[in-house]
Amino acid sequence: MPERNETETAVTALCRRWSREATPLEGPAARMAFFRDRLPGLLRDRTLWGGILAELAGGGTAGEGRGEAIFENEVVLYRDPARVFSLRLYLFGPGDRTPIHDHSSWGVSGPALGELEWAPYRLEAPPARLAALPPRRLSPGDVATTLPLEAGIHRTGSPGPGSVLMVSVYGTPLRRLFLNFYAPEAETVRRVFPARLMRKRLAARMLEEWGSSG
Q1: How far is CA 173 from CA 86, 103, 111, 151, in A?
Q2: Per DSSP, what are the bridge partners of residue 116?
Q3: Which of 85, 143, 152, 159 could serve as 110's disulfide partner, Cβ 3.0–4.6 Å?
Q4: 127 Cβ partners below 8 Å, 6+ apart?
Q5: Percentages helix, strand, coil for the chain, rounded to the nearest 5?
Q6: Phi-psi map region of 113: left, alpha, beta (phi>0 left; psi -120 to 50 alpha)
Q7: Quick check: 112 and 40 in contact, CB under 8 A?
Q8: Topology of the domain covering 4-213
């Protein structure tokens, strides 16, 4: 397996090339189509992903710190300086799934390891009355696309006894700093912020309470 520097250099070099090729494309649809064509080849690079997993298993960061993550199992591998796209990976243990959620950008995702369940939902009535749409099972090299906000509500994870490594490319985000997590049983939705931003918001709220209580 490649050493850490070799792995990070390979990811960075690839993403910089993608950035040069994708930046001139006009509109989200063209960029999403570009990454839908490019991502399957990356997903099949077992040497690259084996090196990244080895780094994480050894306590390394594999690019963490390059951007705020919302999910506990999320690692930001690359964030384009011009915000054209970001490359992220998600690690699922057997039977693990995300909450039902949306995103603030379009996305292209697929597994590099294991069988990924991709379960889309349709918002029938706000705030959180959802209808489950037919799920998909993706093998390494297969990809699925999602749209931003209510048009792309979904859940991903491992449907069986094996682990899943999911890799996602997300486009330029809208000016929204949170994701919506949906609880259709209770028909409720809550905003979830990156941990650092959540701490900042809570501290500001507590500071107001601190001042009013004095």
Answers
A1: 10, 8, 22, 15
A2: 138
A3: 143
A4: 187, 188, 189
A5: 35, 30, 35
A6: beta
A7: no
A8: Jelly Rolls (2.60.120)
Q: Provide the residue ranges of all domains of the chain, joining segments of one domain with +.
A: 4-213
Confirm if 111 and 167 have CB atoms less than 8 A apart: yes
Got the DSSP string for 12-45? Answer: HHHHHHHHHHHTTS-SHHHHHHHHHHHHHHHHT-
Cβ(187)–Cβ(127) below 8 Å: yes
Direct distance between the N- and C-terminal alpha carbons of the chain, in angstroms, rounded to an integer: 59
C-alpha–C-alpha distance, residues 145 and 104, integer Å: 13
Other C-beta atoms within 10 Å of 196: how many? 10
Alpha helices in the chain (DSSP H): 4-22, 28-43, 46-57, 195-213
- Structure pTM? 0.88
In this structure, which amino acid lies at residue 204?
Answer: A
Please report how many Cα atoms fall inside a 13 Å half-sphere around the Cα of residue 122, on the Cβ side.
5
Query: Shortest CA distance to 169 belongs to which of 143, 190, 130?
Result: 143
Token pair of 116, please?
Answer: 């990924």
The amino acid sitting at 57 is A
Ranges of the chain whose pLDDT falls below 50: 1-4, 64
List the one residue out of 110, 107, 159, 154 whose CA is nearest residue 132: 154
